[in-house]
Amino acid sequence: LDELFFYLNVQQTGHGKYSPLLAPFEADFPVPPLLADALGADVASVNVWAAYATSPSVVFNSSLHNDERDNMYILLRGQKAFRVFPPTAALDLYPLGNMAAFDRTSGKIRYSRPNTRAEPLFPHFAAVRNPYDVDTNRFPRAANLQPVDFTLAPGHVLYLPSSWFHHVSSLAGRDSQSIAINFWWTYKPKP
User: 94 falls in which pLDDT band (50, 70, 90)?
Assistant: First the structure.
């Protein structure tokens, strides 16, 4: 084999902060208590993102999407590039789902839940897949976009508020590996 590559993602989708695969590592990735107190939030889940390739020409990219939870993304190894857009750019990114509400104060987007098979399963994904090479003939409003770019190195932390659209690339490096964890937050109701 000339090239070998894999991408691993472990996300908690049920109850509890850690998936059964990550539970044995809970002590290695503790929830930062001071941060949780400062944000007035609880961690909803802890996720792992890992990529490996024997060739530096292999780059892993996410689709352009937003998350419904605030995200604390911590890069442990490798490099990652983020291209982000505020929620106010949502219509220019052509979201696959129907936006049911947009709160301009909090910046949160709420999508209507699919109730037919014709509606998208992932409404928070954008029809604009690659924000680095946008077909403005197909997506004319995308010509108005003003992205913000970040490159993360090991030890860097990116706070990504909910509803911010983002595209993530694992950048090729000398060892072509990247490992990151992220914490998704749920805010506690104020008394």
Answer: very high
